[in-house]
């Protein structure tokens, strides 16, 4: 099956957004609703399959994280979401909560893009330069959340001239209702919405 944005000859990168313990691991009890949905939807299994396939195909795997400094410098509580993150104080450098989920542990060839502030992987980071260096045309967006992070990543990518592809079974929001609403009414306007299996098939045919 052909996935728009992953046609043979196009260069892609996988962006795994905020798959940190504080976000998707229920044992950390930080974002309980989001972590529960990520667990029930088994997104780490799907994302791990995508990451493995990308590495085999020479497709760059990017782990985008938000990690606060211990003193909070650089993080401005300019909206409710960022204010809540700062107030909880768990996703802080050196804390296990800020680490990438062990099921998605980065490999040496992966790229870790860390930011202290903002809601998307492109804000205040060198991500765009990294993608340009690799001549990337399409970003495959996975992770959390369907509420903000995933559509925000797609929008920022589009603003920079990239095409976005979203495997719907590799993302999660804080509830099934919000997830479905966002996918149907927002994300599909910004990206090709597809499945992990279809992305895996497309990756196997893309000429690197």
UniProtKB/TrEMBL annotation:
Keyword Hydrolase: yes
Protein name: Cysteine hydrolase
Keywords of the record: Hydrolase
Pfam families in the cross-refs: Isochorismatase
Domain of life the protein comes from: Bacteria
GO molecular function, one term: hydrolase activity
Domain Isochorismatase-like, first and last residues per copy: 13-198
Record carries keyword Aminoacyl-tRNA synthetase: no
């Amino acid at each position: 099956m052909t996935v728009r944005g992953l046609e043979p000859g196009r260069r892609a990168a996988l962006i795994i957004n905020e798959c940190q313990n504080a976000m998707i691991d229920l044992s950390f009890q930080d974002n309980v609703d989001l972590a529960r949905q990520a667990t029930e939807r088994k997104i780490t299994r799907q994302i791990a399959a995508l990451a493995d396939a990308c590495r085999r195909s020479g497709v760059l795997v990017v782990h985008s994280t938000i990690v606060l400094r211990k003193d909070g410098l650089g993080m401005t509580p300019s909206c409710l979401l960022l204010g809540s993150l700062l107030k909880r104080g768990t996703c802080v450098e050196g804390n296990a909560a800020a680490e990438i989920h062990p099921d998605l542990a980065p490999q040496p060839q992966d790229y870790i893009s860390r930011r202290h502030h903002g809601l998307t992987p492109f804000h205040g980071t060198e991500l765009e330069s990294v993608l340009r260096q690799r001549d990337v045309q399409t970003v495959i967006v996975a992770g959390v959340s369907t509420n903000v992070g995933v559509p925000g990543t797609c929008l920022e990518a589009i603003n920079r001239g990239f095409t976005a592809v979203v495997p719907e079974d590799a993302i999660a929001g804080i509830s099934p209702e919000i997830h479905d609403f966002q996918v149907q009414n927002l994300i599909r306007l910004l990206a090709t919405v597809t499945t992990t299996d279809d992305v895996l098939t497309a990756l196997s045919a893309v000429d690197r």
